[in-house]
Amino acid sequence: MAKKAKKQQPGGTPATVALTAAGVEYTVHSYDHDPSHPSYGEEAAEAMGVSPDRVFKTLVADVDGALTVAVVPVAGSLDLKALAAAVGGKRAAMADPVLAERTTGYVRGGISPLGQRKRLPTVLDASATAHATICVSAGRRGLEIELSPTALADLTSATLSPIARP
Prior knowledge:
three-stranded antiparallel sheet
C-alpha cells in the first residue's frame, strides 16, 4: 500500500516539511533579502541579529566526482582539503552552481542541508557543537531555520569534522 504524500504547507519549504515530519523542534526566521548584499550568510546574520559563528552556510562541493554538502559558519570559509579528508576523498572543488541547484532542488543562496531533492553526503563543521542552536537556510533566500546542531546532524546523517577555516 502506497503512502500518501503530505501536502506542503503554504510558505513551507522541503526543509521545513522535513523537520515537521521528523518532529524536530525548530524556529523559522524570515527577513527581507537584499539582492545587492555581497554575502547571503552575512546578510542573514545581520538581519537576524545573530553572531556569524552561529549562522551556517550550505555549500556543495565535488569530492572525487561525488557531490558532497559542507555546512560551515558564515564567519569562515570551507577548507576543501579538510572536506575531502572528512569523507575519505583525495580532492575537492566547489561544485558547478547549476549542478548544485539542480541536484538539491534549491537556488544558490537558499540551499538548505535539509529536504534536498537528492540526499547527498553531508559534513557539518565541528564548531556547530559549541552552540545550543545554529541557523541554516530554510530553502530560500530570506528564510532561515534555527535548530540544534545535533538534530541537524541526525537528520542529514552528517559527519562532524573541522572543515572550516577562519
